[in-house]
Amino acid sequence: MPRPSVKEKLIDAGLRTLHKRGFNGCAVQDITEAAGVPKGSFYNHFPSKEVLGLEALERYWQGSASRRAILGDETLSPVERLRRHFNSLSEAVSRYDFEKGCLIGNFSAELPDQSPPIRDGLAVIYAGWTCAIEICVREAQQTGQLRTGADPAAVAAFLVNAWEGAVLRAKVDKHGEALEQFDEVVFAGLFV
Fold first, then answer.
1. What's the CATH code of the domain at 70?
2. pLDDT tens digits, 117-141
3. Which residues constitute the domain of residue 87?
4. Are the C-beta atoms of residues 101 and 93 closer than 8 Å to each other?
5. 162 and 68 belong to one structural domain
6. Model pTM above 0.85
7. Which residue of 40, 103, 132, 183 pairs with 60 in a disulfide if CB–CB is 3.0 to 4.6 A?
8. Residue 1 has pLDDT above 70, yes or no
9. 1 in a domain, yes or no?
């Protein structure tokens, strides 16, 4: 098996470090130490920590593709797809004792005014995620599983926004009650 390249080591270490400590909570030195590479090699691959942050964000998003794939599993009802999607996200947050939260939410809270490129990357992620959820919500509405006559796009955006808020709260509280409340309100209140 070939050894990972220095660039790959930096992206992997950057993702872990940025997710755990935040963008402003770590320096390039912290990332290179986590990668086990000299600090000077960082700048051979990335002109800035911001560029690495974008790569780490993309890696994080691509790493959650299997969780999003649940949304397209037409062997399940649309509501069951949504439930499994959010349950898989809850399990991922819980796995780290609510310390890391969601990198998307963490960057959203920390960087929109500081980094226009990262803000733009987040906007693309939110749009794609919301669109995938909207498809399920629209199907749930068509099959009579959505209790409200609300616009499916608005419901999908609400779900993403409420989810990210619940994750931030779970990170503060260090337990999953906010995630359980999200599940209860969404799946007992919005859907049949």
1. 1.10.357.10
2. 999 999 999 999 999 999 999 999 9
3. 64-190
4. yes
5. yes
6. yes
7. 103
8. no
9. no
